[in-house]
Design goal:
Blueprint: E1 8-10, H1 15-25, E2 29-32, H2 38-43, E3 51-54, E4 68-69, H3 74-79, H4 85-92, H5 97-102, H6 105-109, H7 122-127, H8 156-162, E5 166-171, E6 174-179, E7 199-204, E8 210-216, E9 227-236, E10 239-248, E11 255-256, H9 258-264, H10 271-284, H11 295-314, H12 319-327
Parallel strand pairs: 1-3, 2-3
Antiparallel strand pairs: 4-7, 5-6, 5-7, 8-9, 9-10, 10-11
């Protein structure tokens, strides 16, 4: 049985109190919300904080008044009628109902990067002499690389990037707002621009976007994404006024495919336009051999999934395709 390391638990009742604790404890402290990712990581000794600062008792993190509190559970996001479609679809496909009842929006946005050589027990990792992300000096995925290539596996981030959303970060020093895309860095170890003393408190999503999120995974439930495609459009009739397409799970960060968005502006979503835009998306997908399924196949199907998202936004009935993907288990 894997056991948690010893730690001290704090349960503040406000963001200000939590920020004060983080400032006082420094790197020894970590935030915990639902704990669905952090606690398994602690059992595998990926993280061993001396202090856990719980956000569970901070009511202001669960607000739904024009913005989305970071403490909202994924299940509540799915049930909320004002949740944008892509964000609802992304949240609905995270893990299982039990985990969605515990996991939060902020936790999913700050999800640790994943890798075949990292997400193992301490003893397994020790047997291969550890890896660059934790306790070692070699990236076993790309041995010549000086950078960890562990992959971003958050579902909600690509959806929110496509929706041009903004996150608020609070600390004892003050607060700041940044686009969701700027929250991430292309480094499997240092993957967030959020400082250790900052708390992600809320997400604001502009209105007027029509959006969709498509996810590839081996099983139709539970699994992390091995490809995520989010698309958001502003339409004037059948003409695209603005477009944003984001990719997830193909790099150490989720990111915007700017060329595809620019290409779509001023066009109608004909089959030919969708095919060309999907090709531009697939060209930016550069998956590594550090998650499930063949990396070349994962890159190839990025084209298909981008097309699915755009066809759904065009108004095509994609329910049968979604069900087929959900049943797919090679």
């Amino acid at each position: 049985m894997l056991r948690l390391p010893w730690f001290e638990h704090r349960a503040p009742r406000s963001v200000a109190e939590a920020a004060k604790i983080l400032a006082g404890e420094g790197p020894a402290a970590m935030l915990i919300a639902g704990g669905t990712d952090l606690l398994p990581n602690m059992k595998r000794r990926h993280q061993s904080p001396k202090v856990l600062v719980s956000l569970a008792r901070i009511e202001e993190l669960r607000k739904l008044n024009g913005s989305f509190g970071a403490g909202l559970t994924l299940s509540r996001l799915v049930k909320n009628e004002s949740t944008p479609t892509a964000l609802r679809q992304a949240a609905a496909q995270v893990a299982t109902p039990h985990l969605r009842n515990m996991g939060t929006l902020g936790g999913n946005l700050c999800l640790d990067t994943r890798c075949t050589y990292y997400n193992q027990t301490y003893e397994w990792r020790k047997a291969i002499d550890f890896c660059l992300k934790k306790d070692g000096s070699t990236c076993w995925v790309a041995t010549a690389s000086k950078r960890c290539v562990a992959v971003s596996s958050t579902d909600t981030a690509p959806a929110l990037i496509a929706l041009n959303a903004v996150v608020r970060l609070n600390s004892a020093k003050g607060e700041r707002e940044i686009p969701v895309e700027s929250l991430y860095k292309n480094d499997g170890i240092d993957y967030l621009s959020r400082r250790p003393d900052e708390i992600l408190t809320e997400v604001t999503v502009p209105s007027g976007w029509k959006s969709a999120y498509w996810k590839l995974r081996r099983r139709g439930s539970f699994d992390f994404p091995i490809l995520g495609v989010a698309a958001a459009l502003r339409l004037s009739g059948d003409l695209v006024e603005d477009a944003r397409i984001a990719l997830g799970a193909v790099a150490s960060r989720p990111f915007l495919v700017e060329k595809a968005g620019e290409f779509l502006k001023g066009k109608r979503l004909t089959d030919e336009v969708i095919a060309q835009a999907a090709e531009l998306v697939a060209n930016r997908a550069k998956p590594m051999d550090n998650t499930d399924m063949d990396l070349y196949w994962r890159k190839e199907v990025a084209d298909d999934f981008a097309a699915y998202a755009l066809r759904e936004l065009r108004g095509d009935d994609m329910r049968e395709t979604r069900q087929r993907i959900a049943r797919y288990q090679p």
